Amino acid sequence: MNTERDPMLAAALRALPDAAPQPDLWPGLARELAARRKPRAWRTLVPLALAAGLLLAVLLPRALMHEATPPDVVVAPAQEAPSMHATDDELDALRTRSRTLERWIAAVAARAPQSSRDLMAAVEVEDLIGLVDLQLSGARAPSDALPLWRQRVALLEDLATIRGSAFAIAANDDIAGVQDAAYHGID
């Protein structure tokens, strides 16, 4: 090296400002660790969702059991010479009752086990309801349709009784099993 330049190089290097130390990494690392420690939503939401599902599984059968009781039957007594207005009102009431029974039967039929004898009886009643429906499609006047709607509602009530008896027997078996387990100390 050149000796003349060495003292000048040395002086130039001494004139430079001191090098800044590296920035402290700890604050960034502390923020990252704190973010990892924060409770995530899934850690609280998953147990809450499981608890809600369990509660629903326990309470839903009870709610459906109360829903499974057939609605009360309210049928107006027949008059010998009904007026046109009374016939229309009774037809509307019978149609509403028919819809209510059909919804109830559909809800119970999906949940209730049935014996083969009850299934055969239910199929026969459903066939009779189908025949009445065919006759209703051919009825021209409300006075012709009124007795058919009465017959249809009566058949639906019979079908509801058949389906409801199987549901009641199944519910009683469930209750008896719980009582039997409690009596014998079975968990």
Quick structural overview:
The protein has six helices and no strands. With 187 residues, it is mostly helical.
Describe this structure in words.
The chain has 187 residues and is mainly alpha-helical. 76% of the residues lie in helices and 0% in strands.
How would you state the average pLDDT, rounded?
A: 76
- DSSP strand tally: 0
Rg result: 40 Å
- Poorly predicted ranges: none
- Oligomeric state of the chains present here: single chain
Instruction: Classify the helix fraction into a percent range.
Output: over 70%
Number of helices: 6
Question: Kindly, what is the distance between the CA atoms of the first and last residues, rounded to a whole number of angstroms?
Answer: 96 Å
Give the biggest sheet. none
SSE sequence, one letter per element = HHHHHH
Strand content: under 5%
Dominant shape: rod-shaped
Q: Which structural class best describes the helix and strand composition?
A: mainly alpha
List the helices and strands and how they pair.
Elements: H1 5-15, H2 26-37, H3 41-67, H4 84-109, H5 116-138, H6 142-184
Distinctive features:
rod-shaped; mainly alpha; 187 residues
